[in-house]
Fold this protein.
Amino acid sequence: MVPLMSLWMPILLSAVIVFVASSIIHMVLPYHRTDYAPMPQQDQVMDAVRPFNIPPGEYMVPRAANMADMKTPAFKEKMERGPVFMISVFRPGDWGMGGRLLQWFVFSVLVSLFAAYIASRTLPPGTDYLQVMRIAGTVAFASYSLGNLPNSIWYNHKWSTAFKNLFDGLIYGLLTGGTFGWLWPAM
């Protein structure tokens, strides 16, 4: 068993490496540019919705009050007539990436911390690179990737986006596992 605190360097360094890799993936490589399609007639839709001053949050339309309400003819008619949608509403104005990037980095540290915990409890000092990479990388891959799949299952997110996120998670898992394998304590 390896003391968790002795893994502070691979925890932080792997989070930094993943942060840089994700920046390259999302800002330089083109494959995520099709994750969200533009809303048809988006200017008219924005103008129509703006007077409602919808507060930031997540919404479902139509939304039944309870299970019994879902069985009423009025609710069934709303569902059939449509549109049926779920939306996330953000505050108007500047997108403000700083806070989101900070949260992403903290999340990456948390993923690396969990990878470190599992690896430190299952592998002794001096374990070879590939074994450390396999354990830490698998934990990181699962943490970065698998939570995206329910969005396609339940919320109609495109499966192509889910698979791109799985691929990103594979890259992040390999980078995290590689960093732990490289910096794993010797005997």
